[in-house]
Design a protein that fits this description.
The structure is a single chain. The chain is mainly alpha-helical. Helix content is 62%, strand content 4%. The protein is built from eight helices and two strands, in the order αααααββααα. The chain is elongated, with a radius of gyration of 23 Å.
Amino acid sequence: MEQQDWASGLSRSIAAEVRRHRRAKGMSAQALADRCAELGITSLPRSVIANLENGRRGNVTFAEVLVLAAALDVPPAVLAFPVGYAEKVEYLPGQDGPPLDALDWFEGAGRDDDDALGLLRQHRDLEQRIRGHYRRIWDWAKHGEPDGVEAQAAREVAEELTAQLREVRAEIRARGLVLPPSAGLDVDAE
């Protein structure tokens, strides 16, 4: 498919998904336009949404996709890649595949942990896992078992994960990337 045909097809797909999600939520085009305006974009009045959904408006900007997705309370990528509603999507000119694969590509899922996105995802994952272990320890302590075998094992795992998080934070710093806040975890103490 040529680039212009591909872009038009993508816009039509986005429009169809906007309509699908709007209807599934029982929203009128006016309610969607009002919600978009509340989110700060006034270039999507009811008439524009109706024209988009009916194919009379042939394009939609990335900014509009983001606001429409927020207004519909769906991830932006599902407007472009209708997971569960299409067998294949053309995610780039001449390149098609299952919508879930396209969505994964769009969000960078499965990438090597060696780039900025991978490092920051690894950082977030480690923080979540550490908090989960400390939550379990706290629950055991509330129930009078702060020194049980499970609590001690959870402490050891949390300490090991904290050491890994320190290494990831050091790598983020070394690469000159923006370091996420430590969110209450004692990870910056060496």
